[in-house]
C-alpha cells in the first residue's frame, strides 16, 4: 500500500508560474495592462479593477483558481516597467513577494529587503548603496507566539496577555521572570517596584499581604510619602501609586495574578507599571521645520496638529507618572522631515 503523501501548499511564485503555463495569454494581457499605466504603486482595488477589465474584454480565465487568490491577497503592486512586483499576504503574519518580468515572463521570489529596494527605485532609480537603513519589526525571539486568526489583528496586547497568563497558570515557576522584572525595573539608576529584600515569589506574596493589612488601616488619600519608609524596609519601592488607594489597587492586582493569573488582570497590572518616560515622535512628511516653505499647503495645519498632540501626550504622561507615585518629568523628542 502506498504511503499517503501530505499536500504542500504551493508558494506564491509557484502559483504565478502555474498560471503562466495554464493561461499564458490572459496573464500577459493582465500584466501588460498594469505596465501600461506606467511606473507607480497599485492599491488592492486597482489590482482587482484591472483584472475585471481584462476579464470583460478577454474572457474569464481567472474567474476561479489559485492566481485569483493571489490577487485577492495582494496588498500592493509595484510597477516599474517591464517589472511588476506584488506583495501578497495570504494569511495573518505571513508575507510573500514576487516579481514578474512582463517581457521575458520569468517569475522570481523576493526577500523583504529585495522588495523594498525595488520599491525605492520608483523614486531613486537604480540604487546601489549597500548601506540602507532597515527597521525590522519582527519579534526579537521565535518564542513569541504569532496570531493566526484575523480577529487577533489590532489586539496584540490582549493576545500576548492571554498567552502569558495561560503559561503562568499552568506553571508556577514561570512567575519567577515576573519577579525578576519587578526587581530589576529602574529609571536612571533608581530602583522601582521591588528591591533586593524580595528574593522569591513566596517572599513577595508575604510582603504584599503585610502591606495590604497595613494600608487597610489608613485613609484612602494618604500620600505614599507617609508610609514609603516602611515599604522600603519590606522591599517595596516607588512605582506602586501616589496614595493608599492607588497602591492598594496595584497590590490587589498582583496578589490576584500570583494566586490565579487571568488576561484581564495581567493587562491592567502591566499597564500601570511605570515604564514609559521618553517618547520619540517621527513625522516623515510635510514641510514642518524646512526652509522656504512658507505658504505651502498644510504647513500651518501640520504644525498645529503635531504640537497639540505633543502637548496632550505630555500632559497624559505627567498625570500617569504622578498617579504611579513618581516625580519624573517625561521627555518627548520630535523628529520631523
From TrEMBL:
Residues 155-242 form the Sucrose synthase EPBD domain. Keywords: Glycosyltransferase, Transferase. Residues 8-120 form the Sucrose synthase N-terminal domain. Its EC number is 2.4.1.13. One of its GO terms (molecular function) is sucrose synthase activity. It catalyses: an NDP-alpha-D-glucose + D-fructose = a ribonucleoside 5'-diphosphate + sucrose + H(+). Signal peptide: none annotated. InterPro entries: Sucrose_synth_GT-B1, Sucrose_synthase_pln/cyn, SUS_EPBD, SUS_N. Gene3D superfamilies: 1.20.120.1230, 3.10.450.330, Glycogen Phosphorylase B. GO terms for biological process: sucrose metabolic process. This is sucrose synthase. Belongs to the glycosyltransferase 1 family. Plant sucrose synthase subfamily. The keyword Glycosyltransferase applies. It is an enzyme of class 2 (transferase). Residues 265-335 form the Sucrose synthase first GT-B domain.
